[in-house]
Amino acid sequence: MLNADDDEEPEGEKYSPDGGYIPRVLFYDPDGNILDQYKNENGHPDYKYYHFNPTSIAATMKKVIKERNLEKPAVNEEL
């Protein structure tokens, strides 16, 4: 996760696929490629990556985890 102030905002299409507004939440794969299909499903069509509350961010995070098979493996609590 990266939190950038206005004057620290990264430049380029990779970091602003639908324009330059703040805040926006973008998801990337381990190689740094944007996963542009993961956006706020209930958001404004002009601001696809703006999340108006933590619940919408969590819902999108859960979708990424599920669809990319990133579920945390079961932990063996046996010592």
TrEMBL record:
Biased composition (Acidic residues): 1-11
Classification via Gene3D superfamilies: Glutaredoxin
Residue numbers spanned by region Disordered: 1-22
Enzyme Commission number: 1.8.4.2
This protein's UniProt keywords: Oxidoreductase, Signal
GO CC field: endoplasmic reticulum
Keyword Transmembrane helix applies: no
GO MF term list: protein-disulfide reductase (glutathione) activity
Official protein name in the record: Protein-disulfide reductase (Glutathione)
Species for this entry: Mytilus galloprovincialis
